[in-house]
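Bench log, entry 3. Co-assembly request; chain sequences pasted below exactly as received.
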Amino acid sequence: MHSMLEGTPAESGLRERKKRATRAALVEAAVRLAVERGVENVTVDAISAAAGVSTRTFFNYFDSRDEVFVMVGADAGHRVRRAVLAAPPELSPLEALRDALAAELEEVEQQQELWCLHAEVLRKAPQLLARRIGAHMADELGLAETLAERMGAGSPLFTEERPDFASPEEEERRRALGLYPRLLAAVGGTAVRVAVEHWSVRQGETAFADVFRETFEHLTTGLTLPQQYPVPADGA
Amino acid sequence: MHSMLEGTPAESGLRERKKRATRAALVEAAVRLAVERGVENVTVDAISAAAGVSTRTFFNYFDSRDEVFVMVGADAGHRVRRAVLAAPPELSPLEALRDALAAELEEVEQQQELWCLHAEVLRKAPQLLARRIGAHMADELGLAETLAERMGAGSPLFTEERPDFASPEEEERRRALGLYPRLLAAVGGTAVRVAVEHWSVRQGETAFADVFRETFEHLTTGLTLPQQYPVPADGA
DNA sequence: ACGCAAAAATGCAGAGCCTGCAAAAATGCA
DNA sequence: TGCATTTTTGCAGGCTCTGCATTTTTGCGT
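Structure output for the full assembly:
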C-alpha cells in the first residue's frame, strides 16, 4: 500500500488466480446484466448469483454496488506509469505521456467488446460516470509522481534504497517544478477522456488514432483557435 | 430542462424562498456535521434533525445522502458561461475562458468559510470528491456548447427564435471545429481543479491568483517543460 | 378575513445496500 | 495426511432510498 508500483504483479498461486477469476466474473456479470435490464434494476444479489458466489462475498471484493461498474481496466494507470519511465529520454514530458497513453489505448482496442458494453452502461448512468472519473483521479496523483520523477530526480520508485521518501535534493527539485507535473498528469487524463468521448459518438467515422493525435496537437500548440477553421469575418 | 440557460432565476415567492432556505440549511448542517464528526458518521437523520425537517423531506431535496455534500456552489457553471459570452471579442477562446473562471473564483473567495469547510470534507472523502468531479462534468458539456457558440456561430442561446436547434450553417461550423470546444472546456475545468488543489496545500504561501496565472501560462505555452527549472545535466 | 386548490412536509412500509462477527469450507505446505 | 491460513458464507442489524397516503403550509381569489 505504500511503495508505489507493485499493485499488479502476475502472482500465480491457485489462490490468486481464483480471486482474479471471481473478481472478473463479478465485473462481467454486472456489466452484462446492466446492459440487459438497466443498471438500476441490477441488484447485488443478482450479480452474485450470476457469478456463482454469495451476496456477502460480493462485498469482500467491492466496497459498494456501484464500484463493480467502474472497475474495468483498473490497472491501466499502472502500465502507463511504467511506460512513462521507460520512454526515450529525448522526449519531452508531454511527448512521453502522449506515447504512453497511446500505447495503453492500443491495448484497450483488443478487449473491445467488454469496453463497449461498459461504455454503454456508463453513458446511461451519469452517477457511475462520475465515479469513473474519480477513479481516474486516483491514478492522476500517482502519474504526477512518476512524471516529476522522470523530470527532476532519480528514481525513488523501483529502487531498493528509499522507496518511500525522496532525498532532500529530490524534494528541492520537485518543489522547483511547482504544479507542472500535477497539471500535466491531469490534463493528459482529461485529454484521453475527451478524445474517447468525441470518438465514441463518431464511431467508425474516424480512426481513434487520428482523434488522439488531434487532441494532443491542440495541447502542444497552446490550445489556440485552430487556424484551418477561422471564425467568419463578422457575426450575423 | 431543454432550453439552456435559465436554471437560477431569482424567483421570490414565499414558497421559493423557503425552499432555498431549507436546501441551504440542509447543506450547511451536513457540512458542519461532517467536519465535526467525520462524513461517515453523519446520517441523514442527523442532518435532517439539525436542519429542522423530517428525514423524508431530505430526500425531497436530494437524490442521495452524498449529494448534499457536493452541492456547494452548484450554480457557478452558469455564471461562467455568461461571462464567456460577455467577454470582449478580441480575446481568444482560451483567454475568454481563463478570465471567466478567474472572475468566478474571486466570487468564491468571499464565501471562504463554507468553502474551506467543504474542501476539508472532500479532502477526507475521496468518494465524494469523485462525485464532485462528476458534477463538474455536467457543467463541462454546457460550457463546451457555450464556447462553440462564441467561436463558430450566432447565439442559439438567449435568442427567441430557435433555442433548441441550431441552423444548418451553425451545425456545419460546429462540426468543423471538431473536438476543440469540448477539449477547451474540459482542460479549463481541469486547470481550475489542479490550481485549487495545488494552492490549498500551500495555503498562505502564495496568492491564489498567482497559482491560477501560472497554470494558464503552462496551457498557453503548450505544456512545455518550464525553462527556468531545467533538468540536471545527467541523471544520477 | 376566509376558504379552496396546489404544493410541500410527514409518517410508514418495504426493498435494497452494506458491515461486523463467527462458523464452515478451501487452500498451501510440511 | 494434518495443520495454519485464507476465503467464503450466513445472519443480525443499521442505514439509505422510494412510493403512497395523510396532514400541514402557502398562494390567491373573494
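Chain B has two domains: 14-70, 76-220. The longest helix of chain B spans residues 126-152.
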